[in-house]
């Protein structure tokens, strides 16, 4: 697929590099020539340009892209101007980055339905980990539902999912189990995780495994707290 990433700060750079590594064609633009030069070997195409300049933006293959991501962070004015320009140019899919409530309101007024709040989401995930040491990671699906990675509760070690009966006990769904191992890569210890596939009633819960759980956060916390 083809993506255009506008803004190569920490978030934009990481997104563009990861998309390139996943095999997608990525055009990444930033007004800082030094940043563009540093990333030219890690991203499919890099361009030095002012994303608020209409003529410059029209030089990009906007109509051929599957999505244009406005990753500009600190300069909210430039971010909004860039987004407005993309809207005027009738780009079919625009994904905006939000760093404030006001910016979110303006994007909604522009009828930008897709936006991301990386700082807020990262803070929320960290808060959840600090709130409960048994939560390894989490992802908020909606206001009600989350996906949480947690340790297998000691009470259920050695049981199958059918025996543990977690869905009926706690109103949660176990999506998969994950094995976590340490590997030595270039002299550094790296944590490697590998999912076991879609969980079934025969899936065995082992002491060192992690559970990936879907449900309401309150129900997931009950599972964690009552089972240990």
UniProtKB/TrEMBL annotation:
Q: Which terms under GO biological process does the entry name? A: potassium ion transport
Q: Which residues form a coiled coil?
A: none
Start and end of every RCK N-terminal domain? 1-117
PROSITE patterns with a match to the protein in the record: RCK_N
PANTHER family recorded for this chain? KTR SYSTEM POTASSIUM UPTAKE PROTEIN C, POTASSIUM CHANNEL PROTEIN 2-RELATED-RELATED
Q: What is this protein called?
A: Trk system potassium uptake protein TrkA
* Species assigned in the record: Sphingobacterium allocomposti
Cite the source lineage: Bacteria, Pseudomonadati, Bacteroidota, Sphingobacteriia, Sphingobacteriales
